[in-house]
Amino acid sequence: MPGLIGKKVGMTSVFSAEGKNIPCTVxxxxxxxxTQVKTSEKDGYEAxxxxxxxxxxxxxxxxxxxxxxxxxxxxxxxxAEFSNYKDTWKVGDTLTLDIFNDDQWIDVTxxxxxxxxxxxxxxxxxRGVNDATHGQHNRLRAPGxxxxxxxPSRVFKGMRMAGRTGGDKVKMLNLKIIKIDAEKNLxxxxxxxxxxxxxxxxxxx
Amino acid sequence: MDLMKYVEGEYAxxxxxxxxxxxxxxxxxxxxxxxxxxxxxQFKGVVIQRRGxxxxxxxxxxxxxxxxxxxxxxxxxxxxIDKIEMNKQGKVRRSRIFYLRGLQGKSARIKEKxx
Lengths: 205, 115
Prior knowledge:
Chain A is mostly beta strands. Chain A is 7% helix and 40% strand.
């Protein structure tokens, strides 16, 4: 779907016309530069590659330097591909929030905050042991049984256990657009968006 | 953070309320919607805290209804607040006077500010 790349700015709340308090996330989206147009003849599918966020030239590998030079822009930090834009765009064109002007709902993809190595209670919402007494000792947040014994004699793949939590790609579906400020490239959506302030996000129709 | 301030500024409502602090006794006139009708109700009590900043700032008012303590939290930028009346300016030493919750009667009084 058509989309743009942006940054999470922070959260606030806004009162609606009916006097209801709406929790909102502020996103700084675009302007993004078209860095490559993929066509079905050449690449096998149609898409638009766009870039966002400034990067220093000395931190850019030579291959990418040439890629950005072709598009006539400075090196960009994030690149992403989208398809099905309403208008046709050329390499070097700038996309702004205007593409969302007729929309009410959008999807936002981000990387959730990393939580480090966590147990199963936080990671998978296991209940732990409900009793602190009745013979329980040092196993309040334990995972419990991992499976049966001599048959199958192993732990099944995908068994939920402790480990690195967060830092995953998460997509929030159907967030309502509260306001579009094309001048300042700001987008106000209802609800929360994964990731920390300043982290990169992808906004899609 | 500047962008955050910009967005909040866009939605900011002009602050027409008196500058009250915790320890002050105020009357909050707030609008209540019943079906299609709108009427104004009052809530008079002591401010026990002001919390947050910008558009999301809230304040808590505590009043004694009979022997029961009642608390209400109001967002300061809520359009449902009609007006705020300052009744008494109290003299307290801290900005969050939660110790008031454990007090009753004579000991729950707050000294008035002298100018």
